[in-house]
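Why do we bother with holo predictions? Because pocket geometry can differ from the apo form. Keep that in mind while you read this record for heme C.
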Amino acid sequence: MKKMTKLLFTLGLATLFTYTINPASSFAIENSECLECHSDESLTKESTDNILKSDITVNLYVDEEKFNHSVHNINGITCVDCHSDIEELNYDDDLPHKEYLESVCCANCHEEEGEAFKNSVHMEILQKGITMTCYACHGYHYVMPMEAALLAERENNYCLKCHNPYQYHEWLPAQESHFAFVECIVCHAPEVSQQIHLNFVDLVTNKLYQSDEIIDILGINYNEFMPMIDANEDGKINQQEFDSLILMLRQKNVYARFHAELVAVLQPDAHQVKRGMAEKTCEKCHMADSPYFDAVFLLLTHEDGTVDHHEVERDVLESYNMSHFYLMTGTRVKLLDKIGFLLLAGGAFVVMAHFTVRILTIPVRRKRKEDKE
Ligand code: HEC
Ligand code: HEC
Ligand code: HEC
Ligand code: HEC
Ligand code: HEC
Ligand code: HEC
Ligand code: HEC
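The structure, written out:
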């Protein structure tokens, strides 16, 4: 069975990607053979640092447990799929493979990401003699599934390793809010699509609930979630259904709220960070029908890393069960006042602010009218 899956996988990959894995190698060498030696924490090698030209000790240990949870292992990628120049292990020698192995090229499998990355400011620095590898951001042995990751995790893994955003955004009010609720690349890679992700938090402790905790609390299976919540069976969670979910949790003594984050969809375009192209227009987000808030999802992550996307109607963002964002889409009076004030304070923006406030209040006025009818 395992062999069969592997075979199908290898064939699948060969058609999916325009490169070829050497099938012999992927059949012949199991991860366990490499880990025979490389799970030894004391295995090191002396080498020379390319940039500093000084002697360094390279740790050759691979943490099997962590590797097993990586997105690559989950998707059946083995050691030799990446270290593809090892075609066989020759135990007659002290060292069963070459002393110097070729560096792994991530773009062999991730061609589109490689192309997108070429157009980014991080490739430009090549002119200064600095090469940024894919793994400067992602790491290599322990690339975790990112789809359902929290924004803080995403930013810490990537941009915050090298940049301090508080150095660059003096013009942006409420910086802390923006960095906490808007992923860097939502502004910095404007071509990438974005989504609002909703996460369960405890009203009292502010603790975040994992998907499996919520599923356990509700006493159901993952595939029973939507049938249970989606009363009108339209495949989307609306305000009413959302409230009843909160109620069901309350009956189990869980007082949940929702924490919303504006994050990027995993796409090659995420790599197109370019100089001077970032989103700066406040109205793009702070306006009633801003496209930034069109796609709202409740994500439930299974143990094996796969993710269920449950679509949520945008109105839900206005719910009082939302610990943030409720000011963004509906009446938003408070936020508008704040922004209106800031723009006014800017002097030159007076006309624009007036104009914006009028546009921004149209839906409010329309809603009032509807309410009367
Ligand atoms: C019998 C023990 C043993 C096995 C099995 C083994 N390795 Fe190694 N590996 C070593 C040692 C020892 C070194 C350090 C060699 C040196 O000092 O130059 C090393 C070095 C490496 C390096 C660093 C090479 C470089 O260019 O710096 C990589 C990558 C590597 N091994 C991957 C693998 C993979 C993948 C497998 C399984 C296909 C594997 N090894 C199987 C012992 C082993
Ligand atoms: C997703 C691709 C990928 C997979 C899968 C992978 N490696 Fe690596 N590995 C790399 C990259 C990238 C490096 C960094 C140096 C380079 O480019 O060769 C590396 C480096 C290493 C090194 C050198 C020490 C270090 O950590 O820098 C060893 C040893 C190694 N890998 C062993 C393994 C073993 C054993 C497995 C399987 C359990 C494995 N690798 C699976 C991509 C991978
Ligand atoms: C400057 C940091 C950075 C570098 C360097 C980088 N990435 Fe990414 N990558 C990201 C971010 C940010 C995302 C989006 C993930 C998110 O929003 O959490 C991403 C997403 C991805 C994804 C998943 C999305 C998709 O397209 O399926 C893959 C695969 C990926 N990168 C591969 C690569 C490869 C290959 C390279 C090298 C050519 C690379 N990355 C270089 C930051 C980086
Ligand atoms: C042998 C092919 C192969 C190589 C080489 C490879 N990957 Fe992957 N990678 C995959 C597959 C298959 C997936 C899972 C399907 C997908 O998301 O595309 C994946 C997924 C990813 C993801 C997506 C994570 C998510 O949340 O979905 C990232 C990021 C990533 N790889 C980064 C890298 C980096 C960085 C390297 C180089 C160190 C690398 N990959 C090398 C095959 C490969
Ligand atoms: C491994 C370190 C590293 C990571 C991680 C990283 N960057 Fe950079 N970034 C750089 C370097 C180096 C430059 C070039 C600075 C220069 O040219 O002076 C740069 C340049 C930039 C620039 C152009 C502005 C400037 O100062 O020239 C922007 C915008 C930027 N990065 C955003 C991001 C975003 C967004 C992320 C997360 C997806 C990110 N960076 C991740 C190292 C990094
Ligand atoms: C609300 C949108 C927004 C968010 C969120 C945001 N930025 Fe920016 N950022 C900008 C704009 C606009 C600029 C001005 C320069 C430009 O357009 O690239 C800028 C400038 C920068 C610069 C300097 C660029 C230069 O050319 O000097 C860096 C580096 C940077 N941001 C990194 C980050 C990081 C890291 C994060 C996440 C923690 C982040 N930004 C979040 C909009 C944003
Ligand atoms: C990419 C979308 C985006 C852009 C562009 C953007 N914002 Fe925001 N802003 C947000 C989000 C999301 C929040 C967090 C909402 C929350 O705290 O409920 C926020 C929060 C704020 C807050 C704090 C609200 C509070 O009560 O904490 C202010 C003030 C604000 N933005 C003003 C601005 C101004 C002024 C600009 C233009 C210079 C701007 N924003 C640009 C998305 C954006």
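The longest strand covers residues 194-202.
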